[in-house]
Design goal:
The protein is built from nine helices and 15 strands. Helix 1 packs across helix 5 and helix 8 runs parallel beside helix 9. Bound molecules: threonylcarbamoyladenylate and magnesium ion (MG). Threonylcarbamoyladenylate (TXA) binds next to strand 5, strand 6 and strand 10.
Length: 330
């Protein structure tokens, strides 16, 4: 009998060197960031980038985010010759180096599959020691979507990545659970008025404060960004839906997922098979941090359906409701 080697390795200098080598050989490497785990390939490797799309089952129309470790690297992939866009970019700079992705005009020499031949490129500087160290030693940008099969739940641990791809990915770098747990905010700087294409941990108010101009916030069902499909993040087996007080349960085998402990005070939860709570302290950050992990666990418990409570779609609540609205979509 041949044993399958699990490709998860704790971050170390040796593992980082192995990752650099694999990326240079056009292989994929999954790595941690402060948001979710990414499935990386060297930006300038057409073969590596093609493997991302193939491995994820990602439509070729859905562009990738380019990860870099400093501003100089951004200029290698983005064309900042337009003065208006350059000024916006310089103004937003203090928020880069964190969970914010910006959309800029692209440089011509990039492999066209990265951004699906669009005139733009998405770029971000992750705020995670392992990701930054890897980027520095590679000395080139890494293209990386979230390390899950297309439309599945995003991974926030190395084990989640392994559950998605098994040994298909030759190296999964384990840097522990991701700090934020939701993907980066995506902000387009292309138009006169910047627009948020995907809500995340960096909030509109922080962006407006720093840019000193109003920006456009998209609604949970926005499709301005090709990857923001209506149905996304849905578990494989269990149907998720938002709790409505008077609606009968779809079957007896239905559980309740309360995002906040306080939600249980106003719900008759005795009718549910089981009750799960994400944040007893009613903390939005804790809900964000644990959301994807909880959705994965719930999917493994064999319920027919899970009713989920809502939070106000304000601040971090907007990013949480964006992901849950997609997870509940039919
Ligand atoms: O936090 C994150 O952003 C994670 C980590 C790994 O960095 N990455 C991530 O990548 O969430 P992905 O591929 O799962 O989501 C990227 C989103 C998609 O909705 C995609 O359509 C959008 O960014 N996007 C990428 N390039 C774009 C572009 N040029 N114009 C508009 N949207 C773009
Ligand atoms: Mg994704």
């Amino acid at each position: 009998m041949t044993s399958i080697e699990v490709p998860i390795k704790k971050y170390s200098e040796a593992v980082r060197n192995e990752a650099v080598q694999l990326l240079r050989e056009s292989c994929l490497v999954a790595f941690p960031t402060e948001t979710v785990y990414g499935l990386g390939a060297l930006v300038f490797s057409t073969e590596g980038v093609a493997k991302i799309f193939e491995t994820k089952g990602r439509p070729s129309t859905n562009p990738l985010i380019v990860h870099v470790h400093n501003h100089r690297e951004i200029e290698k992939v983005a064309d900042l010759s337009n003065i208006r866009i350059r000024t916006l970019y310089e103004n937003i700079a203090p928020l880069l180096g964190g969970p914010l992705t910006i959309i800029l005009p692209r440089k011509q020499h990039l492999p066209i599959q990265i951004n699906c031949n669009a005139p733009t490129i998405a770029v971000r500087i992750p705020n995670h020691a392992c990701a930054l160290d890897l980027l520095r030693h590679l000395d080139a940008p890494i293209a990386a979507p979230s390390a899950n099969r297309s439309n599945h739940i995003s991974p926030t641990t190395a084990q989640h990545v392994y559950e998605e791809f098994g040994a298909q990915v030759p190296l999964i770098i384990d840097g522990g659970p991701c700090e934020h747990g939701l993907e980066s905010t995506v902000l387009s700087l292309i138009d006169e008025k910047p627009v948020i294409l995907r809500p995340g941990t960096i909030l509109p108010v922080q962006i407006e404060e720093i840019l000193k101009i109003p920006i456009t916030k998209t609604t949970p069902h926005s499709t301005c960004s090709p990857g923001q499909g209506v149905r996304h993040y849905a578990p494989e087996r269990t149907r998720l839906y938002f709790l409505e007080k008077s609606t009968p349960l779809p079957t007896e085998n239905t559980a309740l997922l309360a995002l906040f402990g306080s939600h249980l005070n106003t719900i008759d939860h005795s009718r549910f098979k089981e009750v799960h709570t994400i944040s007893l302290d009613n903390s939005l950050n804790e809900v964000a941090h644990k959301l994807f992990d909880t959705l994965r666990k719930i999917d493994s418990l064999g319920y027919d359906a899970v009713a989920i409570t809502k939070v106000e779609p304000i601040g971090m609540g907007a990013a949480i409701m964006d992901r849950l609205t997609r997870a509940c979509a039919k």
